[in-house]
Each structure stands twice: as structure tokens, then as C-alpha cells.
Amino acid sequence: MLHVRSIWNGAISFGLVSIPIKVVNATESHSISFRQIHTEDGGRIRYRKFCELEDREVTQSEIGKGYEDADGTIVPITDDDLAQLPIPTAKTIEIVAFVPEDRIDPLQMDAAYYLAASGAPAAKPYTLLREALKRSNKVAIAKFALRGRERLGMLRVVGDAIAMHGLLWPDEVRAPEGVAPDVDVTVRDKELDLADALMDTLGEVDLEDLHDEYREAVEEVIAAKAAGEIPREAPEPAKAGKVLDLMAALEKSVREAKESRGEEPAEVTRLPQRKTTRATPKQTTGKKSTSATKKTAAKKTASAKKSTTKKTTSAKKTTSTSKTTAKKTTAKKTSAKKTSARKRSA
């Protein structure tokens, strides 16, 4: 850590205690940097800084800061102007409170720094603050100025050192409005059980075992092209099928996670399939057709029987009427004969 250049020198203000410190970066980037080139001949593309008034290229030592006013006027601002700002945080990390660590929203986390004790006189107060933070199980909230603006920070113990995380101001964190699904979704207990089983199967991981595979692949490509070789082709990504059944996807994930760890496939209970409202066309089979034909034939026979019954009933009624009429006619004739015989006797 001694070879790391400090980016800020000042002191921690802990009440009336002042702790001289140096601020150094706690992280480093391992990403691969690329240069812009002219694709036709491989020449470097460079950006040169020109002064608009003198129309000439200037060196870095000739470049300073300036604030552009609304009317286009440039107001020069020097490093001395910023160093003499009338605020206590210009050269001081001012501790303002101590809070439980879980009170800090991870969304506020920004860059991380180590605070190194500056010189032998700083060793005792530095150790005092470190041990006080350890015993309290709290973190310190502080204000400090860096790179032209006042910032918020969180001090915590890392090993035997004090680390500081830059924090965004609360009004710099956006609210998650419009991010969550805007439809009502019901998650069943069985689905949650399978999700829990998948989480348990995946288990924990040692972060030291994780590495940047993308960077390694880029380094392979660079090495191959530098040696005049053709970089190996990337395998085709597996085609992702459309997930129609969440339960099936969870079950398969649990099985694959188990198998990847050399464990027996997970035993899961399949939920009964939900009834779908999708209309499925009915398939017509020979049996159904025969049945339908029989039903139609039965209906026709019943109709014919009804018709026959009606005709028979009608015929019977006609016969009965005829007989009644005949009887009445015979009776009339008999009565007439009797009347005629009486007249003759008289």
C-alpha cells in the first residue's frame, strides 16, 4: 500500500480530536483499455488541445479550470481558490454522526478509499477511532470535499485499517417508480418452495473464486492476433426456449444445479396443471360419428312413430265418427217405419 499515491491529504475531525490522514484509492480497475486507430493504416488517433484565441496546441501545465457564466463569460478558478473555501470540510473529513451500518442504503454507495495515518503522531488517535468503531458496531457518517465538491462518506473498519465509502446524497438516488411490474401477480407457496430449493442448492460462493471471464477472453484474442493466429470461435449460445411453465423451469433449474454439484437430482413434487381457458378444437373420432348417427336415426324413428300414432288415432276417430253417424241414421229409419205403420193401422 505504501507505493499507492495519495489523492487527498487532510485530517479526520473526531470531536476535538484531529487525526492526520492520507486518502488512497481502495480499488483498482483491471479492464483492458483500447486506443482509437485509423482502420486503413493502424495509425493512432490523437486529440490535441488547442487554445481558441491563439489557435495553437497547449500543454497540460497551461490548462486550468474555468466556470462558464450564462452569458458565455469564463470565470477562472484556481486550485488555491478551492483550497481556501470557507467550509470546514475543505481539508477535513468531519464526522457528524455514528449510525448502525444497516441504516445505509447500498444504493448510496460510491467509490471506496483507505484512510492511512499520516506520520507517527497520528497512530494513537487513528487506533482510538478504529477500536471505538469496532466496539460500537457502528459506522461513522462524515462530510468531506474532494474534486471540487462536498461529499458524504461512511467510515468503517476493514482489518486493521479505516476505510471510507463515498456516499451519494439522498436526493441523488432515484426512486424506483415505474420499475416494478404494473400487473397483479400471484405467487403460489409451491413456487416459493421450489425457488427456496434452488437458492439452497446454489448455496454460497467464495468471492475469491470468481473472476472476469470477459477480460480473459479479450486477452486471448489479443494474444492470438499478436501471434498472427486466428482467434478461436466462440461457441454458439444455447437457444433459450420460451418458458411457458414457471414450475417446470424451476424444477429443471434445481435438477441441473444438483447435477452440477455432483448431487442426486432433486426430488420435487409436480403441481397439478392449471386449467386453461384456451378453446381446443374437438377431434372427431369414428366412435363419436357412429354415436351421432345412431342418435340421429333414433330421433327419426321416434318422429316416425309419433307420426304413425297420430295417423292411427286420427283414423280411429274417423271410424268411430262414421259408426256413430251410421247408428244415428239407422235409428231414424226405424223410427220412421214405426210411425208409418201406426198411421196405416189407424
TrEMBL record:
Ku domain span: 55-184
Keywords for the protein's UniProt record, in alphabetical order: DNA damage, DNA recombination, DNA repair, DNA-binding
Biased composition, class Basic residues, residue ranges: 325-346
Keyword Nucleotidyltransferase annotated: no
GO molecular function, one term: double-stranded DNA binding
Region Disordered, annotated ranges: 254-346
CDD domains: KU_like
GO BP, sorted A to Z: DNA recombination; double-strand break repair via nonhomologous end joining
Listed SUPFAM superfamilies: SPOC domain-like
Pfam families: Ku
Superkingdom, natural source: Bacteria
Gene3D superfamilies linked to this entry: 2.40.290.10
Biased composition (Basic and acidic residues): 254-264
Biased composition (Low complexity): 284-324
Family under the similarity heading: Belongs to the prokaryotic Ku family.
Subunit structure: Homodimer. Interacts with LigD.
Protein name (database record): Non-homologous end joining protein Ku
